[in-house]
Amino acid sequence: MVSQAEGRRPERPETIKTGMVIGILKEIEPAEPRCAMVPGNVPRLLRLGAEVRVESGLGHGCHFPDEAFALAGATIARERGALLAEADILLRVRKPHASELEAMRPECLYVSFLDPFKSPELLRKLAERGVSAISLEMLPRISRAQKMDALTSQANLAGYVAALLGRNMPARFSP
Predict the structure, then answer these.
(1) C-alpha dist (Å) from residue 116 to 5, 95, 127, 147
(2) Structural domain boundaries enclosing 155
(3) Taking a C-beta distance cutoff of 8 angstroms, is the pair 25, 36 a contact?
(4) Does residue 5 fall inside a structural domain?
(5) At 74, which CATH number?
(6) In angstroms, what CA-CA distances link 98 with 106, 121, 123?
(7) How far apart are CA 101 and CA 119, in angstroms?
(8) 4 lies in some domain
């Protein structure tokens, strides 16, 4: 093992099994192409000792096939209900549908955009179910939380897309 005094990171143990199940749900809204996880991030969670289960078809809108998630080490879940019932942490882009609330395991953590000011009834139902929730748009927009700032990252991405779309307009719009 190399010490930090030598300027390099100490080696990490390969994997410590925690028994925690992280479930990533696919989006069911037809106009939502985003997914809450990309295959490249699965190994990070595995190294922390979690089991990662992704719903079949998760990356369809982003052109990530199920095989990419499986090669990264995730388990492909074929049944949404089982994934909702077994996960300790649920990740998703959008808020849950009312029909999914009863299937969620009490004491799980649900992380997504929740639109809390427009969805107080949803928050009440999550609390009644015993589900903790993190609304990504409510994270503080400060330097320390910059890695988790979903609003800025999505706005940045929208800016790039707008520039590319604008460039494809007729020449009079983009000299």
Answers:
(1) 46, 10, 13, 21
(2) 140-175
(3) yes
(4) no
(5) 3.40.50.720
(6) 15, 10, 11
(7) 14
(8) no
Give CA–CA dist 23/91, Å, rounded. 6
CA distances from 34 to 40, 48, 57, 97, 123 (A): 15, 25, 12, 17, 23
Using alpha carbons only, give the angle 34, 97, 67 rounded to the nearest 5 degrees: 40
- pLDDT tens string for the chain (175 positions)? 444 445 554 444 455 567 899 999 999 998 999 899 999 999 999 999 999 999 999 999 999 999 999 999 999 999 999 999 999 999 999 999 988 999 999 999 999 999 999 999 999 999 999 999 999 888 777 777 666 666 666 666 677 778 777 777 766 655 5
Residue type at position 71: L
Q: Which two tokens stand for residue 75?
A: 């388990």
Interstrand relation of 75-77 and 89-91 (parallel, antiparallel or unpaired): unpaired
Question: Partners of 54 in the beta sheet?
Answer: 24, 76
Answer whether residue 164 is part of any domain: yes
The pTM of the full predicted model, rounded to 2 decimals, is 0.78
- Which positions ≥6 away from 147 have C-beta within 8 Å? none
> Do residues 53 and 75 touch, judged by C-beta distance below 8 A?
yes
Residue 141, SS3 per DSSP: coil
